[in-house]
Amino acid sequence: MKLIMYGVNRNTVSCDDVHKYSLNKAMRLSHLNDISTFDGVVELLLVATNNRNEYYLYVDEKTFKHGDLLRYLSRHTGKPLEEIILETYSMFNDDVTKHLFDLTSILDETPESINFLEQALYESMAYGTIGNVLFELFNAAIDFSLSLYDKESLYPLINGEAPKAIQKLRSHYPEKKDINYLIIGNNEIITQLMKYLIRESGSYLTFLERNEKSRELIKNIDNWLALTNNFAWKNHIQSVDLGQLVYRLSKADVVIIGSSIKNAWLSNELLEDMYEMRPTAKRQLILDLSGAQDETVFSNYPTLSYTQINDTVGSGYSNEKMEVAKSFYDEYLTNQTNDFMIKFYEIAEEKITHMHVNKDANHNISYEKKISYKV
């Protein structure tokens, strides 16, 4: 059994031909359905972004034929097979894992969003082309990307609003575990932060439900919990309307204001209302990603720590520290890859050993059929 990845990206395909590889949702599902029927294909996921298409397969190498996939891409694009061979790249086992882990890394110069890994998981689950191996691989890749925020050794290499917000949060509450968050606003950075915070135990997220986009964010987080098997976190997340703003503000340890907020929400009047509801002083951190808040308001409240987070580039670290951080990342990536491959071989061995007694297991029907027939 083997992990394989075939891909094309903007660096391997001429600008004039990129559109021939473009895949909308209907095409992606069609590719999943078609390729999953090829001999030897046990599991399949497709990562399709604006920059690349990558097909991740778990196969029985005794029956899988590499040419089947290349000829399929030739038919899809209308390009000769010889050109497909030149434009595609492939990887196997350890290299597949390391590449996927690195793909959404915040240290990559042009990282892909973990949203694309989510999309790949959702769509493969919908069509029954995923099993334990690729499910574990993609969740490990997502966890790897989010774990980078916790590595102080990598701070010299990390830029961006989400990492800066997390660094500030960690310095403000280095030991506190049961943190209450109030989230006002929504955007991609907020979503990224929430997925990181869900990895914590004992914290609570309260979303201020302002409009349809806020509701979409909450739905996105619910889907994320299901996808990553964090069902227990459902009790740690809630949404509230504007009528509860003062109360929720008084309870919050951390207030995160997203860049979608265009007005100064935290006024003197609102803060006075908060202190009236909770007269006892409480240490609070306000992370402002919007830049719309009036910073002078907070000077009258010594227990409030206000920080404006922006996306300016520039770490101020020496070249020596940058090199040390790069070495740390390379070693961490290698170790995490090795750890997953140990798990991969254990799962693969278990499937081969026990597949004949698992026909009635509670898995996707199409996945079980492929296992029992192809392996």
3D architecture notes:
This protein has a six-stranded parallel sheet with strand order 7-6-5-8-9-10, with helices on both faces. It has a four-stranded antiparallel sheet with strand order 2-3-1-4, sandwiched between helices. It has helices spanning 25-35, 66-77, 81-87, 94-103, 114-126, 132-147, 161-172, 188-197, 212-227, 245-251, 268-277, 319-354, 365-374, and strands spanning 2-9, 41-48, 52-59, 89-92, 180-184, 204-208, 237-240, 254-257, 284-288, 304-308. The relative contact order is 0.12. The chain has 375 residues and is an alpha/beta fold. It has two domains: 2-148 and 326-374, Glutamyl-tRNA reductase, N-terminal domain (Beta Polymerase, domain 2, 2-Layer Sandwich), CATH 3.30.460.30; 159-308, 3-Layer(aba) Sandwich (Rossmann fold), CATH 3.40.50.720. It has 13 helices and ten strands. The longest helix is centred in the C-terminal third of the chain and has 36 residues, at 319-354. The chain is elongated, with a radius of gyration of 24 Å. Helix content is 45%, strand content 15%.
